[in-house]
Amino acid sequence: MATAVLIANLQKSYGSIAAIKDISFVVEQGEIFGLLGPNGAGKTTTIRCLATLAKPDGGQVEVCGISAVDKPKAVRQRLGYVAQEVALDKMLTGRELLELQAALYHLPPVAAKERINSLLELLGLTDYAERKTGTYSGGLRKRLDLAAGLLHQPDILILDEPTVGLDIESRFIVWEFLGQLKAAGTTVLITSHYLEEIDALADRLAIIDQGVVIGSGSPAELKERVGGDRVTLQIKEFTPQEEAQQAKTMLESLAFVKSATINSTRGNSLNLVVERESDALRELEQSLTAKGWPIFSMAQSRPSLDDVYLAATGRTLMDAEMAAAGTRDLKAEKKQSMNRR
Amino acid sequence: MITQSPINKSLSPNSSFKKDVEPAASPLADFFQETFALTKRLFIQLQRRPSTLVAGVIQPFMWLLLFGALFANAPVGLFGEELNYGQFLAPGVIVFTAFSGALNAGLPVMFDREFGFLNRLLVAPLASRYSIVAASTIYIMALSFIQTAVIVAASAFLGAGLPNIAGLVAISLIVFLIVLGVTALSLGLAFALPGHIELIAVIFVTNLPLLFASTALAPLSFMAKWLQTVASLNPLTYAIEPIRYLYLHRDWGISTPVMDTPWISISFGIVLLILLAFDALVLLAIQPLLRRRFA
Ligand SMILES: Nc1ncnc2c1ncn2[C@@H]1O[C@H](COP(=O)(O)OP(=O)(O)OP(=O)(O)O)[C@@H](O)[C@H]1O
Ligand SMILES: [Mg+2]
Questions:
Q1: Contact residues, A window 145-174, toward B, CB-based 8 Å cutoff
Q2: How far apart, in Å, are the Cα atoms of B185 and each of B94, B137, B285?
Q3: If contacts are CB pairs under 8 Å, which of residues 169-198 in chain B contact chain A?
């Protein structure tokens, strides 16, 4: 399979902030590739370097073997780019916006007309085509932006957080649409900080955190690699800290338990990593009852992508989000991002 | 809501549009296509939001009326023999109006930048980013010509007279040259400055001072020596003076001296060359700004 996107040792700083320290991944033709990471991980910056909106400080960025730095125009021709924030001209109708987009990609007018009609139809926008985009709902705006990105039938469609802030129905439409795109042979590169989204959609993914790739492969591979199964155990609905600590010590002494952590945000429940082959639940139940511990609830599951993230960074994706939310000056960044190069 | 066909051909990648594989069939045709589309967008905006045009026509009219009234009782002959202030003023208002409009040309681009719409243009395989400049220029040019026509008509009505056809053509050419340069300058600033606040600040501090430091409202001979020097370096003066000459004389040619500076008097041909040089300089100067954004 040919390589659609190659990013190798990419680096990019804004002043003293290293937005991307070292990012490498390869997207094969025809696959859906996910970039997963918490807020501020460097997803958008990576995408901007790929879409020729930002100039990398170092490393390689190639699309179909063409360098984005040396031949930006050829790269732009092959990419469809749907930005994280939808920017439409609110005075234009949906159709007028697509007509403008078609001209920017130099589609012959007759072909453009047909393409526009078929994409409007495909994305359920026909009824709204003659209305000004200023009157559109969030979901409609996103769909129109998607249509614009696909107008010139790009080899690779880049979607930066396509479902953030969308209602369930619009989100579902986007997901389904991505499936159709893939079936039709278009390569898709999608960023997200929703685990479930990437897990369900992506053939392969790279998890990035603080400007570096901390793991890449198919979702199954990544989960396999962290190994073991997860057990979530609640002694009581709310377990006092001391009791939880005692239980933890006891559980850690069991041979098939690899590790145990206390989740203080969930009433001091216990998160265990256990050996895959073990009959963990039954053995746990026996040990606990033998020692006189009650059991409020207990469940075993395969590792999720969050466990992959947790194993690599020592925190959950949710915690990382919370931490990032506190430290970013979004207003200053928005202003700065206009001057990004 | 979505068509449920298993494989939809129209979603497949298609290389028939990808002209870069071979060199583009005609980069010039591409340039015209994108310029036309971008210009069309600006005119659609104008049509649905015509207040800019309405204000742009009312304002020079007020200048004519108010400044005209301000000097209504000035001693006869003060502005030159057989010349009333209305005649003196009309060329100044024509040029100043075109200049202000052109100076604001960067604002929509700046808003596009802040809003993220410009990224849509920057990720597209444009034949040249000068198409963005060209579209804005065509748009501003059209507005300027409408305004100029209104001012010429209004001042004829207010008693300033009307140049002949050749004169009107020459006026159009001069307006064209000054608008081109100033529009390019403003667009350059829109790419270079951090945000619209800064751009508006620059517009604010250039607009009126350049008006007063030109011969739009008073002749050089009225001014302090230093201001005479400044006014003689001000591009606006090089647009105002020849138009003023055209308003007053029916006989003129390329070598007719049409304006005086403290140092030399300058012919019509040289004035045009100076305006052309101004344009060339600005267009060259903004080139790195357009390229800066990772061309
Ligand atoms: N213009 C800028 N100036 C300074 N720092 C920036 C700028 N843009 C991004 N950053 C920083 O670079 C890092 C990566 O930002 P980026 O926008 O790429 O993250 P992201 O993964 O897309 O996040 P999100 O999920 O919130 O969209 C962050 O730490 C951010 O604070
Ligand atoms: Mg982002």
A1: 148, 150, 152-156, 173
A2: 19, 11, 8
A3: 194-195
Residues B160-190 as b or e (16 or more Cβ within 10 Å = b): beebeeebeebbbebbbbbbbbbbbbbbbbb
Subunit contact B13:A73, Cβ cutoff 8 A: no
Residues A257-275: tens digit of each pLDDT: 888 888 877 788 888 888 8
Phi, psi at residue B266, to the nearest 5°?
Answer: -120, 140
CA of A43 to the centre of ligand 1 (A): 8
Q: How far apart are CA B238 and CA A12, in angstroms?
A: 47
Question: What CA–CA distance (Å, rounded) separates A231 from A241?
Answer: 19
A205-252 pLDDT tens trace: 999 999 999 989 999 888 888 778 888 889 888 888 888 888 888 888
d(CA B174, CA B236): 10
Q: Ligand 1, atom 13: nearest CA belongs to which residue? A: A19
The number of C-beta contacts closer than 8 angstroms across A and B is 143
B37 inside 8 A of chain A by CB? yes
Q: Note the pLDDT of residue B81.
A: 59
DSSP B215: T
Q: Using a CB–CB cutoff of 8 Å, tell me whether A31 touches chain B.
A: no
Q: Which of A35-39, A240-244, B136-140 has the highest mean pLDDT?
A: B136-140
Collect all residues of chain A within an 8 Å Cβ-Cβ radius of residue B124: 76, 101, 104-105
| C-alpha span between A136 and A67 (Å, rounded) | 37
For chain A, first and last CA: distance in Å?
32
A129-162 pLDDT, tens digit per residue, is: 999 999 998 889 999 999 999 999 999 999 999 8
Ligand 1: nearest atom to the Cα of A15: 4
Helices then strands, counting H and E runs in chain A, come out as 13, 14
Identify the sign of the CA torsion A290, A296, A299, A303.
Answer: negative
Among residues 204-223 of chain A, which lie with CB inside 8 Å of chain B?
Answer: none
Checking phi first, is residue B77 left (phi over 0); if not, alpha (psi -120 to 50) or beta? left
State pLDDT tens for residues A165-198: 888 888 888 888 898 999 999 999 999 888 888 9
- Please answer whether residues A273 and A230 qualify as being in contact, where contact means their C-beta atoms are separated by less than 8 angstroms: yes
Q: What residue type is assigned to position A101 of the chain?
A: Q
Say which residues have a Cβ less than 8 Å from residue A35's Cβ, sequence separation at least 6. Answer: A25, A43, A46, A47, A189, A190, A191, A192, A205, A206, A208
**Ligand 1 pocket mutation, candidates A17, A322, A334, criterion most atoms within 8 A of CB:** A17
Q: Contacts of residue B292 in chain A, CB cutoff 8 Å?
A: 341
